[in-house]
Amino acid sequence: MTDFFHTAWVRPVRFGVLAAVALPRGLEPVPATVLERLHPRERALAEAERGRRQIEVVGGRLAYRAAAKALGADVDEHPLLSDSARAPLAPADWAVSLTHKEDLAVALVGPAQAGLLGVDLEGGARDRSSIASRVCRPEELALVEALPQAERWPDVMVRFAVKEAVYKALAPRLGRFFGFQAARVDRHADERVSVALFLEPTDPAFELEAEVLRLEGARIVAMVRARG
Ligand SMILES: CC(C)(COP(=O)(O)OP(=O)(O)OC[C@H]1O[C@@H](n2cnc3c(N)ncnc32)[C@H](O)[C@@H]1OP(=O)(O)O)[C@@H](O)C(=O)NCCC(=O)NCCS
To answer: 136 and 104 in one domain?
Structure first.
């Protein structure tokens, strides 16, 4: 049986450490014994939420704790809170990004001096290629449409996940919303990806690195690191 709210895995990755926590499906309140494992300020955040949001908030914080501990951070001193736009308020020395799906919460934690981080978990069996025209820039869409039908959604999914990770890395620094047309994901041999940004001329410049990790069950984790 899955051990809900416990660490499913911890992996060192290029940008730091990635940790995943198993989540229960459904809407049941998170047990008090699980809430007790959080920092009191994280617990207060979780107790203000209900249903799925509560499960996600708790899962994300537990995944953060697992990843940060693996990097030697003192998580009891450094709770992970959120700003009014829901971006993680990471402790001073660390960059943190979170993502969750029905059964898993994932945190990416790395040293702040190396750059801002973004992470996104996507995947599963469902074909959502109908979102391609919203997610892709015209030049990306031309490449997607040249693929055999069965390869289109896996390709769009990578672009979508990387762009969501780009958003999580940059939105807190830019302080504004930006849509999917603001980035182009270029796919190279050996699963490598790179990102070209199309921000406003008044925005700061960023140097971006991206990586896609494949998990079992046709799932992927996109990770982005931004310096600028
Ligand atoms: C903000 C957004 C990326 C969050 O994704 P989501 O569908 O809620 O799904 P995920 O589970 O993957 O991520 C949730 C986590 O994202 C993080 N997040 C939410 N808003 C954020 C923001 N403005 N900045 C950074 N991180 C943010 C939070 O940590 C959140 O977890 P928490 O609420 O439990 O703390 C998404 O809702 C969105 O608005 N996307 C459109 C913008 C975009 O992607 N543009 C493309 C630019 S190229």
So the answer is: no
